[in-house]
Amino acid sequence: MPADLLSELYPLFNAASPETVEWLSSVATHHDYPADRAVVMEDAWGNAVYFIESGWVKVRRHSEDSSITLAVLGKGDFFGEMAILDESPRSTDVVAMTAVRLMSISAQRFIQTLFKDPQLHHRLLQIMVQRLRQTNLRFQLRHQPPAVKLANTLTAIQEAYGEPVEDGVELVNIPRKDLADLADITIDEAEKIISKLVEKSWLIEDSARGVILLKNARQLAHLAGRL
């Protein structure tokens, strides 16, 4: 991928020097995965940082015979940096929700780049703080009604990865269990709330394309308490 496109696609590289971006582009490896394929297994964390060129993935935590979805990530985001920085064992994996194209940079090269480019280092810290704030927000919402929790979840995802179209904003159609995990509500609650949003014409599900259309993102943000 050309260096200028790399900076355009990934906010992490906005502050990096042109030399840094050029070098990272030259040492990156690209991977394609079909939907439902495990992208990174539990024992593979710490080998590289992964950048999403296209498609959607979910990060899951495993506990005995069950799993909980911790995050849904889309184009322009990245994962794997924490495993590199703290070098601790992981109990999570990453699974492709759709067909996915990833770019990976080895742990050694990524760490070397952080030492050489302080602006990139600072930008990484900023993004990690933003993620921490999002986690704190989810914790603060734990006593809110299920509809507020789910509205916050959908709003956060559409703000980060939504694709503007003529009639609204498109997102991947996230399975109900994953939505429930992300919003910390039950699957039944998620199903009822989505049905109400469909009735209000705030949301349209396109099963054939595997996407949802948020037709009234402003009202959804208002429900989430973000306006």
Automatic annotation (TrEMBL):
<dbReference type="InterPro" id="IPR014710">
    <property type="entry name" value="RmlC-like_jellyroll"/>
</dbReference>
<dbReference type="InterPro" id="IPR050397">
    <property type="entry name" value="Env_Response_Regulators"/>
</dbReference>
<dbReference type="GO" id="GO:0005829">
    <property type="term" value="C:cytosol"/>
</dbReference>
<dbReference type="Pfam" id="PF00027">
    <property type="entry name" value="cNMP_binding"/>
</dbReference>
<protein>
    <submittedName>
        <fullName>Transcriptional regulator</fullName>
    </submittedName>
</protein>
<dbReference type="GO" id="GO:0003700">
    <property type="term" value="F:DNA-binding transcription factor activity"/>
</dbReference>
<dbReference type="InterPro" id="IPR000595">
    <property type="entry name" value="cNMP-bd_dom"/>
</dbReference>
<dbReference type="InterPro" id="IPR036388">
    <property type="entry name" value="WH-like_DNA-bd_sf"/>
</dbReference>
<feature type="domain" description="Cyclic nucleotide-binding">
    <location>
        <begin position="12"/>
        <end position="131"/>
    </location>
</feature>
<dbReference type="InterPro" id="IPR018490">
    <property type="entry name" value="cNMP-bd_dom_sf"/>
</dbReference>
<dbReference type="InterPro" id="IPR036390">
    <property type="entry name" value="WH_DNA-bd_sf"/>
</dbReference>
